[in-house]
Structure formats: structure tokens, C-alpha cells
Amino acid sequence: MISFLFKGIIRDRSRSLFPFLTVVAGVFLTVGFYCYMKGAEFDITRYSANMGTGHVKVMTRAYAKEADQFPNDAALTGVGALIGGLQEKYPEFDWAARILFGGLLDVPDEKGETRSQGPVAGIAADILTPGSKEPGRLALEKGLIRGRLPSKSKEILISEELSRKLGIGPGDTATFIGVSMDGSMTMSNFILSGTVRFGVQSLDRMGVIADGADIREALDMPDAAGEVLGFYKNSLFDREKATATARAFNALYEGREDDFLPTMLTLTEQNSLDAYFAMFEAAQAAIIAIFLLPMSLVLWNAGLLGSLRRYGEIGVRLAIGEDKRHVYKSMLAESLIIGVLGSVVGTILGLAVAYWLQTKGIDISGVLRNATILIPTVLHAKITPFSYFIGFIPGLLATFLGTAIAGRGVYKRQTAQLFKELET
Amino acid sequence: MKKILALIILAAVLPVFPVLSQAPSAETILDRVDRNAVPGNKIVMSEMIIHGRRDSRSIKIKSWIEGEDKAFTEYLYPPREQGIKMLKLGDQLWTYSPATDRTISISGHMLRQSVMGSDLSYEDMMENKKLREVYTAKVNGEEKFLERDCWVLELVANKGEAAYYTRKLWVDKERDLILREERFAKSGKLLKTLDVKSVIRAQDRWVPNHVVFKDALKEGQGTEFKIDTIEFDVAVPAYLFDKAGLRR
């Protein structure tokens, strides 16, 4: 039966080509968009975690309230012991202390007077300890434009854009003017070891990367850090587990009134990322729904046209005694075959484009010109196991629904009228 | 009858006249305050106690001041701040840090930064113009403050350069000293307060020797400023008011 229908579809292309192309187009777009949304979600999660939020983050309550202002006067103290405790209690995470800082970078002329000066926002992480994962998380090697990574104390990296604005290059000295943990103005000299491109608009404008120990000394923050970030050892964010971990940690300090007690937030609880994730989930559901509905309508219409065109054929089949239900079922089977063929071809094409986008990505820096949140400027697609199947949902459903609605006309044919109709 | 009526009116009005006649104009009060606050040369040893969010710390400072335009300050304590110097010449401010051997001009938005984490900003430090030149004043009444009779003055900036748009002052009637001050933004938001806790007599002048500054936008208990010693009309070495002097 199936091979009979299949032969019919192949040999009489006029009845199958349009529905087939519709399914191919719909499935192709569904797979392509789905992979791109998945990739964007993955890129944003990875960037956010690595550059600022971690999969979970520990701060003081006071710091958490104003975290976007780098309030280092509310930083965590006794960080060595805190990290030791976290490693013991939550071994599924790698824990890393970071200090976010703001200030000015002042470049001297030959007399030591200010030649150029600009505001900076920096990340201090453990980038000098051999084996530290922080240089990798911050993608320093990958982003290096000029010079080299810091190899000794008092060396920093700055963004390529900032280095050009200030007119300095690798090997030059600059003075960082910042604010210490107790609010004093501090000045420290650093040597620029290299320049980087972060791929994050806000950091590319005025980013500085320094070693944590250097900034602790510069800002007078002994054994202190603004934040302690936790990264899942497999690098994959597990929202439910992270939420449970944060809840358990925060329960330890519940009921105690002290703004300097630690609190844990998950990745999605920071920088309005929960809204982004909700948006991604809604978009993924919407993509399937959006393609399912118009495809069904188009295929319904195609089915109606097909039924009109095949009016005679169906009439003859009914006239020679074929059961209406059998005719209807064979039409549905035909539509499923077209759906499968269209979905396979559409999925192959969609995956091909997704693979290309997974490698190349799309540069969205144009829409992030004034963005202050940590979003990568290039978003890639990501092919997941579900990418191979997602196209079949609208592909099969739409053809099936379209034919099911259009094919109801079979039941309206009156057997008594058939010969009369066929004579005319 | 008319004479009796006139006498009654005169008797009723007369008590008012002595008060009005004694009340100097707001401009006169400000002139007196400026005369008292901005003298010639002085050398001041002082201590700043900063009550932060977590703890308090003390900074010792020595300042050489010449008139309203020149000031040189050296931080003496604690060791981390020791040797930091600041030079103010007119509207310009430089700071020198021995750790970096750099002299850096403090300008623009840096002026709004806190001085050593205190409740004072560099802008507050730079403020040396006579109040009379920058503000238009009016007397709002009289109040007792710290057991002293005070004029309550309301000042409104008449120049765009003023750091605070309005100020409310409690001025000691007898000593021409500001005993309390509230500083406001143009929106009417309270930004800073200043409270004099004690006053000393030094070389025939009244000097507030214990003042508490409070940044109303910051948490904490404010910054105490205590004068240990003050000498007026002393010779101040000219080299101090030279940028090169910062490196000495």
C-alpha cells in the first residue's frame, strides 16, 4: 500500500510537489531558528557564567544589593576559608574569587605627567597561578590581539579599543586610580602586557584584566573579594540543581540580620538573565507553533486544491466501490509520506545552515552598541540531539492536519451522483 | 486722646525696633563668617576619623594653607596613606602618591570622589571661595543651637559652579561661626550635613575644632574632623605651593 502511494507521489508530482516544498521550507526554518535560539542561549549562558555570574555566585548581602556598582566596601572577607568551606560542601563546583573594580587608567608622559586618562572597568581573577582555569574562562588566549598574557605580578591586559584610545601598547606603564575597600583613593602602577578583544561590548570599551592578588594589594583588600563564583565542573549550567544549592546555602544564614553575611545567587537570578531565559523558552515554543499554524493552513489549502483537481479521481475510486474511509485514509497516508520526505529534506537543509552558523556565528554587535550587560557580540547556532527531530513536529502535524481537514470532502460525495458527475 | 493713642501704638511697636535694628543683613552675616573662616596663612594638624560601613579608621593630616587659593596637605598616618600629598592651587588639584611616584591631576568627575573614603569629596575640599561670592543669602530666623544663639540663613547659589545649590546655615550670632550646615541639591535632596561639636579659642579667633561631616547618601556614621593644633599667620614655605614640591 505504502509503496503504491509512494509511487503515486513520485510519478504524479503535480499533486505532491507544492505540499512537499511547503513542508521543506517550514521544517528548514524551524530547524534553523531552533538551532540558532539554542546556540544563542548557550552562548549567553557560557559568556555570562565565565565573564561575571558563574553558575552560582556568593557575595555579601550588601554587595548583592548594589552588585552593578562594584561595591567593594561590602566585599566578602576571609575568602580563603570561605572557598575552602564551599569546596568541601559543594564539590561539584570549581570555586574562584573575583574582584570587579572601576577607576581610571592614567598614562604618564616622559615627565610623569598625565598624557591620557580614561575610565576603566576591570575583572581581577587568578590568572597567574599555574593550572588556574580563569584565563580559559575569560578566553584571554583566544582574545589576545597584541603582546602576551600576564606572566608576572603587576602586569595587566586591557581591551584593544581602550589601548588605542589611551595611546598605549604592550610594555607601557599606566597608573590605575581606584577606590580601596574602605573608600580611599588608591594608585598603583601596572605594566601593560597585552591587549585583548573580549567579544563583549561593555568590556571592549573599557575592560581591564588583572591578577586577583595584584588588585587585592592595590585596593587594600587582604583575603577579601567582591564575589566568589562557582562553576559546574562539567561546565554545563543545571538550573534546577543550582537553584537547590543556592537555597540550601542561603538557608544556613536565614533569620540573621547582618548585611555582611554571604548570600548565593544562581546565574539566572543575576543581570535579569531569568528574563532572557524565559524569552528563549517562549521563543522556541513560538517557533514550533508559528510554523505549525501557517504550514497547516497552507497545506489545508493545498489539500483543498488537490481535492478539486483530484475530484474525478476520487469520484472514480468511490464509483468502483472503494470505501470512503479507505480513500480518506490513503490521502492521510499520502500526506504523511509527503510530511516525512519534506521533514527529512527540510531537516537536512536546516542542519546544514545551523552547522554553518555554529561555526561562523552572526555578529550582533550593531544592536549591542549601548549594551552594558555581558552578552557576546557573536552568537552561534548549536545543534543538539533534539535539532534532528524538532522539524518533524510541524512537518508531520501540518501535512496531516491540512489533509485531514481538506479530505473531509470525500465524505460529502454522494454515490448516486457520481456517475452523473463523471458523465459531465 | 490722640496723644494717648499714639503712645499706645508707640509702646506696642517699640519692642520690635530693637530686634530689627540689631538684625544684620544676611550679607553682613556671611561677610563676617567669611572673614572668620578664610584668614591668611595657617598650619593645621588634624585627624580625620572615618566611620565606615564596617569599622572606623583614623587618618592624620598636616596642612599648610595660604589664603583661599593655596593649600598643601600631607598624610602622616596610617602607614598605607603616609606620604600622600595633595596640592591645591586655585581651581586645580593634584595628588602625589609615593607608591607610584606619580602626580595626578584630579579633575572632572574625580572631584566628586570621596577623600580617603571619608564623607568629604575633593569638591568639598576645593571649596574655598567666600560664601558671599557664590551664594545669595536671606535670614530665615533665629534658633538656639549647642546652647548658642544662632541666625538661620538660607543660601541659594548665584553661580553655576557651586557644588551645592542651596545651603541652610546656623551661624553663631556672637562668634560668627557656622555651627550646623545642611547642603542640598537643586532638586531639594539633602546631600551633606556638617555639625560642629566643639569650638576653641586660638590666637583670638574662634575655631571649630571638632566637626562631623555626613554624606546623606552614604551609609555609616559620618566623618569626624578634629583639629589637634592650629597656627595662624605663620610663614609657609613657598616651595610647598609648587607642583615639583609634591615629589620632595
Mean pLDDT across the residues of chain B is 85
Distance between the termini of chain A: 31 Å
Query: What fraction of the residues of chain B are assigned to beta strands by DSSP?
Result: over 45%
- Assembly form of the protein: heterodimer
Largest beta sheet: strand ordering of chain B? 6-5-4-3-2-1-13-12-11-10-9-8-7
* Corresponding CATH superfamily of chain B: Lipoprotein localisation LolA/LolB/LppX
Provide the residue-averaged pLDDT of chain A. 86
Helix content of chain A: 40-55%
Identify low-pLDDT runs of chain A: none
Largest interface chains and counts: A-B, 23 and 23 residues
Number of domains of chain B: 1
Spell out the helices and strands of chain A N to C: HHEHEHEEHHEEHEEHEHEEHEHHHEEHHH
Radius of gyration of chain A: 31 Å
Terminal CA distance of chain B: 85 Å
Query: Which fold does the CATH topology of chain B refer to?
Result: outer membrane lipoprotein receptor (LolB), chain A
Instruction: Look at the helices and sheets of chain B and give the structural class.
Output: alpha+beta
Assign an overall shape of chain A.
elongated
Task: Describe, in plain words, how this protein is organized in 3D.
The complex is a heterodimer of chains A (424) and B (248). Chain A has helices at 2-11, 13-53, 61-65, 79-89, 134-137, 140-143, 160-166, 201-206, 212-218, 239-251, 273-309, 311-319, 324-360, 387-390, 392-406, 415-423; strands spanning 56-60, 76-77, 93-108, 114-125, 144-147, 155-159, 173-179, 185-196, 207-211, 224-225, 227-232, 262-266, 362-363, 378-379. By secondary structure, chain A is of the alpha+beta class. Chain A has two domains: 2-47 and 275-423, no CATH class; 56-236, no CATH class. In chain A, helix 1 packs across helix 2 (13-53), helix 2 (13-53) packs antiparallel against helix 11 and helix 13 packs antiparallel against helix 15 (392-406). The longest helix of chain A has 41 residues, at 13-53. Chain B has a single domain (38-247), classed as Lipoprotein localisation LolA/LolB/LppX (outer membrane lipoprotein receptor (LolB), chain A), CATH 2.50.20. Chain B has helices spanning 2-13, 16-22, 26-37, 122-126, 131-134; strands spanning 41-51, 56-66, 70-77, 85-89, 92-97, 102-105, 135-145, 148-157, 166-172, 178-184, 190-202, 205-215, 222-232. The N and C termini of chain B lie far apart (85 Å). The model of chain B is unreliable at 1-21 (pLDDT under 50). Chains A and B meet through strand 3, strand 7 and strand 8 of A and strand 6 of B.
